[in-house]
Design brief:
The complex is a heterodimer. Chain A is mainly alpha-helical. Chain A folds into two domains: 10-151 and 223-373, ABC transporter involved in vitamin B12 uptake, BtuC; 153-220, no CATH class. Chain A has helices spanning 2-37, 44-62, 69-101, 108-133, 144-147, 154-183, 191-211, 213-216, 226-248, 250-260, 262-267, 272-298, 307-320, 325-349, 359-373, and strands at residues 138-139, 149-151, 223-225, 300-301. In chain A, the strands form two sheets. Chain A has a two-stranded antiparallel ribbon with strand order 1-4. In chain A, helix 2 (44-62) runs antiparallel to helix 3 and helix 10 (250-260) packs across helix 12. Chain A is globular and about 60 Å long. Chain B has two domains: 2-140 and 274-352, Response regulator (Rossmann fold, 3-Layer(aba) Sandwich); 143-268 and 357-378, Rossmann fold (3-Layer(aba) Sandwich). In chain B, 45% of the residues lie in helices and 20% in strands. Chain B contains 13 helices and 14 strands. In chain B, the strands form three sheets. Chain B has a seven-stranded mixed sheet, covered by helices on one side. In chain B, helix 2 (36-59) runs parallel beside helix 12, helix 3 (75-86) packs parallel to helix 4 and helix 6 (142-156) packs across helix 7. Classes of the chains: A mainly alpha, B alpha/beta. The interface between A and B is large, with 39 and 32 residues.
Chain lengths: 387, 388
């Protein structure tokens, strides 16, 4: 039983990481818009969806004309991202800007508009696809190159297991100690105690490794597909690119300035409306690329595909600290892994009573728990740097 | 001048009267969405039967028409369509639905208006177990299909550790439970039984399979999920034999799963067309007319429509008027037909007296597969019961 849990751990975390990168890229769209407008753009899940559907159409239409799958993927990413960016800008122009112009102060109004825009886009895409193909479920075609499977070295799996065990033990020990301190009337954990805890958890981990060495260092069967590697590489590049854009370019400075104080920024010669458009463009593009990668990974997309990943990504953004770019990326990764852990382990933990369909229970229970202790999110809402 | 006008009006009125005797048979099945491939076959089969019969009805002074409807494989839409259909007096009978979960609530509406429904595809036992006079079906039942699949899996294929996945619909979960029951009776071990509405990402489920190491995976549901699951299973190195019910019986299953479909099994209540010697002429006509070969439920749609047409014809040639819905319901239950799917006769509940069940093996990733076993089995005499 425990052996199975340990043996699966690297695969689970790897799958979670891949899913997490997709969430992270969507979460960035939420967090950037929140940064500049303090608006939860619920239509972002449909921006993701329009990117996914546009990517599917690109793949299907150009499959015959472009034989190289890598070039095809690049085209799909560009077109999917561009379509999503255009949709995002249109939503901003047609739905949010008029409200801002009228000086709507009630924050519920743009929120409801966002939800309305979300439903509108779902059915609009459904209508277009329905008229076009009489079918609104689109599939990404499969390519041998993308589906090639590689076996990863067992050592990597062993290292992942040990690191995870260490972290889990450390968190549990830290928490237990914290409760103990709180119960005895003192607050906080001293530095010395903290060091003691991580050494103790390291010792515990090594103990497990020695006792269960057959499993930990055995054949873990850790495999990864080409398309998963692509997803990780592309999203990592995108996240890095965004970080560079926000921190090293003039546009990035302007975005951060508007996020801090739009009125003052406009006194310095920055047009907030232009910056807001850019923000939607960047967030939309990332969301669209995430859509194409999602389609590539899981093959089926449809007009309602955005809802669940959208909600999850929004959660990830809050988890990481809304308005915080690094936080959104981190929140996405954490949520992806939690979801995969829940989906896989819940059946074992409840002895089959709760199947995979309840995977979100565990993920969101942990989420509520984290937010109870850190309501500002993992990274917190960095006011100075929020975007 | 005035006289001429009156005459014209009269002539027009007579024309309208002559043409007013329209009889419509509606098909209700998913025509859009991802299950459209199965739903369209029902519609086309019924369309062929109706078009063949149109000339005869014209001689009797009636215009027979098809009214194809889309239920989107969605219970809510199905019931909405049903409510619309019962208010149209020209509609005398229904051929449909595809999904058991849609057929059950929709047929509650038909029953209230005594509108006869002949099902070409619903295999859920509850469709006829409610013993409504107006609901009949031409295909077999899941409480035979599921156990037949399980017997084949355990006895013939030697399955020992079975992992069962279903789609949480009335149909999918129902047949998965039937399968599990028989597999356990036969001594196999069921290492997992789980439902999922997921359509794209099955990774968590697959990781569980990795842990439970099944040698056999059964999927209770429709091809749009089953094919993706199978594909991702194979991509992640799960080599267990794959089997599913008639929901997988579509060329789309192979199209989506690709090479992964090779070696998969499915049980079905509507065998490949070459299993029906009488269907050959119909198949040629079908292909010529619609440009594609009849698949899965097409011939059952054809026979369902023909049962209705035969009952209608008998009544109209005798009574020289269109039957009321209640009269037609009674007649359909009594009608027997030498159809392309064999002898059609209904028992007291509306089940076909003897239905065929097939086990099909996809030896290559090509549809349709090879039939490895055919069983003719009478409808089980389960007691009548209301649901809910």
């Amino acid at each position: 039983m425990l052996e199975v849990l340990i043996q699966l751990l690297p695969s689970v975390l790897l799958e979670g990481l891949i899913l997490g990168f997709v969430y992270a890229m969507i979460a960035l769209g939420y967090t950037m818009v929140y940064g500049v407008l303090e608006l939860i753009n619920f239509a972002h899940s449909e921006i993701f969806m329009s990117g996914a559907v546009a990517g599917a159409e690109t793949f299907i239409l150009l499959k015959a004309a472009v034989p190289n799958p890598f070039i095809l993927l690049a085209l799909a990413i560009l077109i999917g991202g561009a379509v999503a960016a255009i949709v995002a800008i249109l939503v901003e122009r047609l739905a949010y800007r008029p409200l801002r112009r009228r000086g709507t102060t009630n924050r519920l109004v743009p929120l409801i508009t966002a939800i309305g825009a979300s439903f509108f886009l779902q059915d609009l895409v459904r209508l277009i696809e329905g008229l076009w193909h009489n079918a609104f479920y689109r599939r990404y075609p499969s390519f041998e190159v993308f589906e090639a499977t590689y076996t990863l070295p067992n050592l990597l799996g062993s290292v992942i297991i040990l690191l995870t065990l260490w972290i889990v033990f450390w968190v549990l020990a830290y928490f237990a100690y914290w409760i103990y301190r709180a119960a005895t009337g003192t607050k906080g954990v001293s530095r010395r105690a903290s060091r003691g805890l991580w050494i103790a958890s390291l010792v515990l981990t090594l103990l497990v490794a020695v006792i269960d060495r057959g499993t930990v260092f055995g054949d873990l069967g850790l495999t990864i597909q080409m398309k998963s590697i692509l997803v990780v590489v592309i999203s990592f590049a995108m996240l890095y690119g965004l970080n560079w854009l926000v921190h090293k370019t003039k546009l990035g400075i302007a975005i951060r300035a508007v996020a801090q104080d739009a009125q003052t920024a406009s006194l310095m010669g920055i047009d907030p409306d232009v910056i807001i458009t850019y923000t939607f463009l960047i967030g939309g593009f990332l969301g669209g690329v995430a859509g194409v990668l999602f389609g590539l990974l899981y093959t089926l997309v449809h007009p309602y595909v955005g809802f669940i990943p959208g909600i999850k990504a929004f959660t990830a953004a809050v988890l990481g600290g809304i308005g915080n770019i690094t936080g959104a990326a981190l929140g996405g990764l954490v949520l992806g892994m939690l979801e995969m852990l829940g989906g896989t382990y819940l059946t074992f933990l409840t002895n089959g009573a709760m199947g995979t369909e309840y995977k979100d229970i565990l993920a969101f229970a942990i989420l509520i728990f984290i937010l109870l202790f850190r309501p500002q999110g993992i990274m917190g809402e960095q006011v100075g740097e929020k975007v | 001048m005035k006289k001429a006008l009156w005459l014209a009006v009269l002539a027009l009125g007579a024309l309208a009267f002559a043409q007013g005797k329209v009889i419509k048979i509606a098909t209700v099945s998913p025509l859009s969405g991802e299950q459209a491939a199965l739903g369209e076959m029902i519609k086309l089969g019924a369309q062929l039967a109706i078009e063949e019969a149109q000339a005869d009805f014209e001689k009797m002074g009636f215009k027979l028409e098809l009214a194809p409807q889309d239920d989107q494989a969605n219970p809510d839409v199905g019931v909405a369509v049903a409510r619309r259909l019962v208010t149209d007096p020209e509609i005398v009978a229904i051929v449909g639905h595809l999904n058991t979960g849609v057929a059950i609530p929709s047929s509650e509406v038909y029953k209230d208006y005594q509108l006869p429904m002949v099902s070409p595809a619903n295999t859920g036992p509850a469709v006829t177990d409610r013993c409504y006079l107006d609901i009949d079906r031409l295909v077999g039942r899941d409480d035979v299909q599921g156990p037949a699949g399980a017997t084949f899996a355990v006895k013939t294929l030697g399955a020992k550790r079975i992992f069962i996945v279903h789609d949480k619909t009335t149909y999918g979960q129902g047949i998965a439970e039937q399968f599990r029951k028989r597999a356990l009776e036969l001594g196999a071990q069921v290492v997992g039984f789980t439902g999922t509405e997921e359509k794209s990402n099955f990774q968590a489920l697959i990781l569980q399979m990795k842990a439970k190491r099944p040698d056999f995976v059964y999927f209770g549901g429709i091809y749009n999920q089953g094919a993706v699951l199978l594909k991702q299973m194979r991509e992640r190195g799960i080599k267990a034999t794959f089997m599913g019910p008639d929901g997988l019986d579509s060329s789309k299953f192979v199209e989506i799963a690709g090479q992964a479909a090779k070696g998969a099994y499915y049980t079905t209540v509507a065998g490949p067309i070459d299993q029906y010697p009488k269907a050959k002429a119909m198949a040629e006509k079908f292909e010529k007319k619609f440009g594609k070969a009849p698949e899965s439920f097409a011939i059952y749609g054809y026979d369902s429509a023909n049962v209705i047409i035969k009952a209608l014809k008998n009544f109209v040639s005798y009574a020289h008027r269109a039957p009321t819905r209640a009269e037609l319901s009674m007649l359909i239950r009594q009608t027997t037909l030498e159809g392309v799917t064999g002898h059609v006769a209904f028992d007291y509940k509306g089940d076909r007296k003897e239905a065929d069940y097939f086990v099909v093996h996809l030896e290559e990733a090509k549809y349709p597969g090879k039939v490895v076993k055919v069983i003719s089995f009478p409808a089980p005499a389960t007691p009548c019961k209301a649901i809910k």
